[in-house]
């Protein structure tokens, strides 16, 4: 991977990080704020609890993605970005364009999914 490609991935990862960090922060704040607006009946309280859990769950997923992006940025710094952590081969450019924080090539990801079906 040449310097220009690395810089492009660096810019894309930073942009994704900024977007996710803002979204996660907003959703977490909104989740804690639900139900703080005064008297509620049982139905309102249940709806607010469900909405709060959904918002906080989304924040957890986004925080996990933030960690993955931070790890990808670190790999860029250490010249290990773009290599599969399982087999050591280069991750295809098309896969990196779609999912720049990925750590597995297509073949290793398929094997992982076969071994760990959801």
Secondary-structure blueprint:
Blueprint: H1 3-33, H2 42-77, H3 93-98, H4 106-115
Helix pairs in contact: 1-2
List keywords for this structure.
flat; mainly alpha; 118 residues; single chain; Four Helix Bundle (Hemerythrin (Met), subunit A); 70% helix
How does this model look, in words?
This protein has four helices and no strands. It has 118 residues and is mainly α. It has two domains: 81 residues, Four Helix Bundle (Hemerythrin (Met), subunit A) (Up-down Bundle); 37 residues, no CATH class. The longest helix is centred in the middle third of the chain and has 36 residues. The radius of gyration is 19 Å and the shape is flat. About 4% of the residues have low confidence.
CATH fourth-tier homologous superfamily of the largest domain = DksA, coiled-coil domain
What would the average pLDDT be, to the nearest integer? 80
Going by CATH, the architecture of the largest domain would be: Up-down Bundle
Helix-residue proportion: over 70%
Largest sheet: none
Structural class: mainly alpha
Please trace the helix and strand order, writing H or E for each element.
HHHH
Total of DSSP H or I helical runs spanning 4+ residues:
4
Distance between the termini: 34 Å
Strand residue percentage:
under 5%
- Radius of gyration in whole Å, from Cα? 19 Å
> What's the β-strand tally?
0
Count of distinct structural domains: 2
Brief account:
It contains four helices and no strands. It is mainly alpha-helical.
